[in-house]
Amino acid sequence: MSEVEANTGGGGKEQDRFLPVANIGLIMRRAVPENGKIARDARESIQECVSEFISFITSEASDKCVKERRKTINDNDIIWSLGTLGFEEYVEPLKIYLNNYREEQMVAEKERELEEEEAQKSPSKIVADSLSQISRSSTFLPNIGVCLNASNLCGGTF
């Protein structure tokens, strides 16, 4: 067995079990002054540490799922494993982050649904709805109207 196979648990390339070093470098660069540099071996060391940390947390969550006879690791399993393995100070911030993320995803999904509904409307209905919204807007000036031309829309006064 080669050294690479021994380091990866017997199968595959070592780099296949690590996060991409370019992504690690981008994250690290956020914490370094603009004119600062990060050595390649530093990026690679962090790459290995981060990958090991993820494997460590995931392994604990996986063990929990096996004991509970489940096949899918979910976010609650990861949060549980963080607490179990001594990273309690990350549990509450991660819960808050996940709740905020879920709320943002729900809002984005509703916006997509509204956009899809809007796209399915006929062009004349879209124009009528837009004009209606403009007229209800607090920035609408009563002496400015909209003239519709067969080839384009233009602003005009009445």
Automatic annotation (TrEMBL):
Q: Which SUPFAM superfamilies match?
A: Histone-fold
Q: Which Gene3D superfamilies match?
A: Histone, subunit A
Q: Does the keyword Magnesium apply?
A: no
Task: Spell out the GO cellular component terms annotated for this protein, sorted alphabetically and separated by semicolons.
Answer: CCAAT-binding factor complex
UniProt KW DNA-binding keyword: yes
State any single GO MF term. Answer: DNA-binding transcription factor activity, RNA polymerase II-specific
Query: What region holds the Transcription factor CBF/NF-Y/archaeal histone domain?
Result: 18-82
Please name one Pfam family that this protein belongs to: CBFD_NFYB_HMF
Tell me the GO BP annotations in alphabetical order.
regulation of transcription by RNA polymerase II
Q: Which InterPro entries match?
A: CBFA_NFYB_domain, Histone-fold, Transc_fact_NFYB/HAP3, Transcrpt_fac_NFYB/HAP3_CS
Task: Family membership, please give it.
Answer: Belongs to the NFYB/HAP3 subunit family.
Designated name of the protein = Transcription factor CBF/NF-Y/archaeal histone domain-containing protein
UniProt organism field: Zea mays
